[in-house]
Specification:
- Keywords: DNA-binding, Transcription, Transcription regulation.
- This is AraC family transcriptional regulator.
- The chain has 274 residues and is an alpha+beta fold.
- The chain contains ten helices and ten strands.
- The chain has three domains: 147 residues, Jelly Rolls (Sandwich); 44 residues, no CATH class; 59 residues, Homeodomain-like (Arc Repressor Mutant, subunit A).
- The strands form two sheets. A six-stranded antiparallel beta sheet has the order 1-2-9-4-7-10. A four-stranded antiparallel beta sheet has the order 3-8-5-6, with no helix packed on it.
Length: 274
């Protein structure tokens, strides 16, 4: 999909209710149009300008664009240097299912510096290129839940108290621990717990202080650390602990503990041998 010799658009493999793109445009990108989805993204370089709700908006690196469904907008470079961006298109039904009947969040102005929205958006925009490892079902659901909650907070939506279903959350907790070394689907978790995925995600956060995918990842990392102390190759450990590959394990390990696996093993083995 090219506009000029230099403009380009990359599209990630779509998943249910979500599309992702990364693009660069040197000037005019799009005329006035609208989506029936949320359009949420980050400008990576340059100035991204667009008309939205009777005003001209500008997005620069460090900000997040949040365009509400069915709102007219266009897109063009704000300077002669062009702009590069990543955008996420989310079916509002997914956001609604997570929020459980609350009004869809509306973020005024179309551009925000809200840190929680930024982090949630960044998590879902990590993998734009088709060749990159796709999201696990729980991983994407976790990131989408965080995005919905972040949007609601940024929009000033009132918090709704919910007593939650502890029994279902406890079943999920035990099941994730017992099966951390493989991919677990959302349908599978619903069958095990008897709770729908959106309610279960809210309950798990309420009773265990973290998301189901985050809990699953940490149990995988616990297993990986135990295996590292045996001296097994890191690639074999990654496969055995349920990670897609060694680089996937390294990213998650470094994010969780602040140092890469090889460095951790060197330090831990040295301490253990004293």
């Amino acid at each position: 999909m090219k506009k000029t010799a230099s403009d380009w658009v990359l599209r990630a493999a779509p998943t249910e209710g979500i599309e992702r793109i990364e693009a660069w445009f040197g000037g005019k990108a799009y005329g006035m149009h609208r989506h029936d989805t949320y359009a949420i993204g980050r400008t990576l370089a340059g100035v991204q300008s667009f008309n939205y709700r009777r005003g001209l908006r500008h997005s620069v690196p460090g900000q997040t664009m949040v365009l509400h469904p069915d709102e007219l907008h266009d897109g063009q470079a704000g300077t002669g240097d062009g702009f590069r961006y990543r955008m996420l298109y989310v079916d509002p039904a997914l956001i609604q299912a997570i929020l459980g009947g609350r009004a869809l969040p509306f973020v005024e102005g179309g551009v925000t510096t809200d840190l929680r929205v930024s982090r949630a958006t960044e998590a879902l925009l990590q993998r734009t290129e088709k060749a990159q490892q796709p999201f696990e079902p729980l991983e994407q659901h976790d990131a989408l839940t965080e995005l919905a909650l972040a949007l609601a907070q940024a929009a000033g939506a009132p918090t709704v108290s919910d007593s939650g279903d502890y029994t279902s959350a406890a079943r999920a907790h035990a099941y994730l621990r017992a099966n951390c070394d493989r991919i677990i689907t959302l349908d599978e978790l619903e069958r095990v717990t008897g709770r729908d995925r959106f309610g279960l995600s809210r309950d798990f956060r309420k009773f265990y202080g973290t998301s189901p995918y985050r809990y699953l990842t940490m149990r995988r990392l616990d297993l990986a650390r135990r295996l590292m102390l045996t001296g097994a190759p890191l690639a074999d450990i990654a496969a055995h602990a349920g990670f897609a590959d060694q680089s996937h394990m390294t990213r998650q390990f470094t994010r969780a503990f602040g140092i890469p696996p090889a460095r951790w093993r060197t330090i831990a083995s040295g301490v253990a041998s004293r």
